[in-house]
Amino acid sequence: MKYNHVVLVDLDNIPKDEIKLALKEFSEGSFGLETCLSIMWKNNLKTKACCAGEYGDYDEAYILMDEKVDLFRYLSEDLLNNDMVAIEKIYDKQRISFCGTIDEKEQLLKELANCIIAGKKNHDQLVQKKVKKRL
Predict the structure, then answer these.
(1) Phi/psi of residue 129, each to 5°?
(2) I need a labelling partner for 82 at 20 to 30 A (CA). Which of 43, 104, 107, 114 fits?
(3) Spatial CA neighbour of 93 closest among 31, 43, 50, 42
(4) What is the pLDDT of residues 62-102, one digit of tens each?
């Protein structure tokens, strides 16, 4: 595997002809995560790390970004009110996490992709309330 390893990969350093390979490797076989990452990258929402959460010690799916990435403004009320979704700010990073079965996580990742396609929302109060909750 060229891209899916412990070291963070700067998206700007991935050659254009290797984007599809990087998406496949980062998504760890998760179609929902691959779709979500692809849409995020196309909308200049750069990710730092991610996990499909399907195997090993880590069962949460997550996407990690710099705090400058305005991902939380894209979230629908459904995602913000869903107990299987957590958003958190960690130092200069922010993270969205999904728990549940593999199928539930896939569905939540696809919903996130659809939220990004739909555009920014104005749910600032819901976002502030959600950031304080953990899974």
Answers:
(1) -65, -40
(2) 43
(3) 50
(4) 999 988 888 999 999 999 999 999 999 888 889 999 998 88
Of 8, 74, 5, nearest in space to 45 by CA: 74
CA–CA dist 115, 109 (Å, integer):
10
Paired with 89 in beta bridges are: 94
> Which domains, ranges and CATH numbers included, belong to the chain?
13-131 (3.90.1150)
Strand order in the sheet with 47-51: 47-51, 61-66, 93-98, 85-90
Residue linked to tokens 């254009």: 16
Distance CA 108, CA 130 (A): 16
57, two tokens = 């010690």
Q: pTM of this prediction?
A: 0.85
Rounded Cα distance between 21 and 36, Å, is 15
What's phi and psi for 53, nearest 5 deg? Answer: 65, 35
Contact 61, 39 (CB under 8 A): no
